[in-house]
Each structure stands twice: as C-alpha cells, then as structure tokens.
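Consider this pair:
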Amino acid sequence: MFDIENSLGFLLAKSYQRGYALFKAPLKKYHLTPKQFSLLAFLWKQDGLSQVELSEKCQIDRTTIGGLVDRLQEQGFVRREPHPEDRRAFQIRLTDRGKALEKALLPIARQVADTFTADLSSEETETLRQLLKKLRR
C-alpha cells in the first residue's frame, strides 16, 4: 500500500506550500510575490542579467520570466536595456527603487527562513539544504 503522507513528493509539496505562504504574507505589503522576490534577489547579486540568464538561474520558463519582468517594470523596480552584445536580448537592470528594496526585504527573508526552519537544528538545516541541492540537479 502506498503511504501518501510519507511520500517524498507529498512532503516536499506541502513544505513548499508552507514556505510560500509564510513568505507571501509579508511581501504583500510591497506588492510582490515570492517569485518576484527571487528574481530581484538574483539581480541584487548580479545586476544586468538577461531574461534568459534569469530564467536559467531561477529555473522558471522564459515566458513566465517575461511576465515577472513586465510586472516588476510596471512597478518601477527594474528596467529593460538593450544588451550590448546581442541585439535580440535585453539586460534587466534594477532601478534605484528596486535597489532600495534589498535593504527592506532581506531582513524579512531571513525572518521567514528562521520561522520556516525553527524546528530544525542548524546542522539539520544545513543537511536539508545540501540534500535539496542534490535533488534540484
């Protein structure tokens, strides 16, 4: 008999849903979703990525990335600039408003991560991180 409640797929899905919900609530104040936050976080690390590069880093399909960038651009957090090496591509650059969000949102992200892993020791959290990286490949 298949034990759905203990299956990895079910447990991973429910863990994702809980983490998403924990993060979605405080981001609402900024009119952002967790996916939009992740795109901004990659740009805070390396501004000027192309949509293709963002798609690869976020592991989100190109069409979805396009919509996320559109919404972030409408909100004034990013802008598209012509790519200096590829006429068909754009670089996504943070605006001053998008850069300023980093200071406000990183503490929120840390707090959500602490809440999410509160029942785990630091060793368990690191083991989980390493295991999830293996599964992600």
